[in-house]
Design a protein that fits this description.
By secondary structure, the chain is an all-beta fold. It has no helices and 21 strands. The radius of gyration is 31 Å and the shape is rod-shaped.
């Protein structure tokens, strides 16, 4: 049956009153208390399809089951936020779409989350898009935080790898401006231990040496070689040594048939070699 009734939802220990219009059933708890001739003794529950408008400005339109939002439905908040998707036991559960007021122009241009939801929280596989900031995350979530494998794009850079508690954590790779990549073991904004940097085009290391790959330690702020590291070109080691924020301190450079030895940032000896390593 279709009826207009007063109905409330529980928020913590409080109740928010509302007006419901749609399909209803008689509350099973009250059906044995019906007094013939007294309509007010009957209590109805939303059941089926209907719309409830609450005093705090929220509007829910969709499916209900015995007084709880259950099935497909849409919730509008008074601030402009929207949720579209699955409901279970009065909460978003399953697959859903959140559209947020921040950056909101229309559904196609708003900040959004599209994916799996568990009791209001992002949980499972999903995509979050920040329109104005040109950022997007596609991957796994746990209790509203990025967790597990995911791909995060920010401007011209992309991170592909592991996350933990909303932080880059574990093995991953950053691709920067489609020019080079950094692979290693991430700890949020830092990299621990050795990394591998691959360059799309050869980079100039010294005036006569180029390289396409670096393997070693780097500076966590500048991402320049820092500590022990090796530059490689065409599967050959061309520079081996110790670095200080991109500057070679001690080591060896290989160029054609020559090997140069470095100390304190300068070449102190060069000799001819028969075979280039």
């Amino acid at each position: 049956m279709i009826k207009k009734i007063s109905f409330s939802r529980t928020v913590g220990s409080a109740k928010v009153q509302g007006k419901y219009n749609g399909s209803v059933i008689i509350d099973p708890k009250y059906k044995f208390l019906i007094i013939p001739g007294f309509a007010n003794s009957i209590r109805y529950l939303p059941h089926g399809k209907g719309t409830c408008t609450y005093k705090d400005g929220q509007i829910y339109k969709g499916k209900w089951k015995k007084g709880k939002r259950h099935g497909k439905g849409k919730l509008n908040w008074s601030n402009g936020d929207i949720y579209l998707g699955d409901w279970k036991n009065d909460k978003p559960n399953g697959k859903g779409k959140f559209f947020f007021k921040q950056g909101f122009q229309d559904i196609k241009k708003s900040d959004s989350y599209i994916g799996q939801v568990n009791d209001w929280l992002r949980h499972g596989r999903g995509t979050y898009t920040w329109v104005k900031q040109r950022m997007k995350y596609i991957g796994n979530w746990k209790n509203d935080k990025r967790h597990g494998y995911g791909e995060y794009k920010e401007g011209d850079s992309i991170y592909k790898g592991q996350w933990k508690d909303d932080k880059r954590w574990g093995k991953g790779k950053i691709i920067i401006k489609k020019q080079h990549s950094i692979s290693g073991n991430f700890r949020h904004t830092d990299l621990k231990g050795k990394v591998t940097m691959d360059f799309w085009k050869p980079v100039q290391i010294t005036y006569d040496i180029k390289a396409r790959k670096y393997v070693g330690n780097i500076h966590n702020e500048t991402f320049q070689p820092h500590g022990r590291g090796v530059y490689i070109f065409k599967n050959r080691k061309v520079v081996i040594g110790t670095w200080n924020n991109g500057k070679l301190l001690d080591g060896k450079t290989y160029h054609k048939k020559f090997i140069s030895y470095w100390k304190n940032g300068e070449i102190f000896k060069t000799k001819i070699i028969k075979k280039v390593v």
